Amino acid sequence: MSATVPGAGGARRPRRLLVGLLLTLTTLLALLSGCSNEEPALPEATRTADGDVGAVSTTAEGVQEITLETGDDYVFTPATFTVAPGTVRVTVRNVAEQMTHNFLFTAGTGPEEITEQIPYLAPGETKTIEFTVAAPGDHPFECSFHAALGQVGTMTVSG
Ligand SMILES: [Cu+2]
């Protein structure tokens, strides 16, 4: 009779240990996956963009213009901007001393296909593309060389 009491207590203790271990493992896994998820999504720009970077302006002909900047990092500045349906002229300036980038709209992600792109933007180069958008919504873009490192952005076309 009395032998079953310590027996039951002894069986409970390992189970508590196991639960504790599982909780620790779960917490560790959550921390680890949280880190690896956040790192590419929040790259830090190592430079300060000029005043003419990032603002959408409209020419007398109604063309919407914007200049993005990139450098020796994995960031477009700005990474997000909004235009209205119509003609858009995107200039990308690479102020890097070492890094080559490119600029293209991520295939199959936006509400319409934009095939205009800057396939290669060497350090110090500035290139411009022009295209027309009609479909409201988010049009994701990327530097395909560094998309996995978080060099992505979104052009939103307003409705
Ligand atoms: Cu890049």
Task: Report what the structure shows.
The protein has one helix and nine strands; from the N terminus they run αβββββββββ. The chain is an alpha+beta fold and 159 residues long. The chain has two domains: 1-42; 57-157, Cupredoxins -  blue copper proteins (Immunoglobulin-like, Sandwich), CATH 2.60.40. It is globular, with a radius of gyration of 25 Å. The strands form two sheets. It has a five-stranded mixed beta sheet, with no helix packed on it. Strands 1-2-4-7 form a four-stranded mixed beta sheet, with no helix packed on it. Copper (II) ion is lined by residues 74, 101, 143, 145-146, 151.
Query: Which ligands accompany this protein?
Result: copper (II) ion
Strand content: 25-35%
User: Mean pLDDT score, rounded?
Assistant: 83
N/C terminus separation: 78 Å
Number of helices: 1
- The shape is globular
Largest sheet: 5 strands, mixed
Tally of distinct domains? 2
CATH class of the largest domain: Mainly Beta
Biggest sheet strand order reads 3-9-8-5-6
Quick one: how many beta strands?
9
The CATH homologous superfamily of the largest domain corresponds to: Cupredoxins -  blue copper proteins
By secondary-structure content and strand pairing, the structural class works out as alpha+beta
SSE order, one letter for each helix or strand: HEEEEEEEEE
What proportion of the residues is helical, as a percent range?
10-25%
What is the CATH topology assignment of the largest domain? Immunoglobulin-like
Q: Mind telling me the C-alpha Rg?
A: 25 Å
CATH architecture of the largest domain: Sandwich
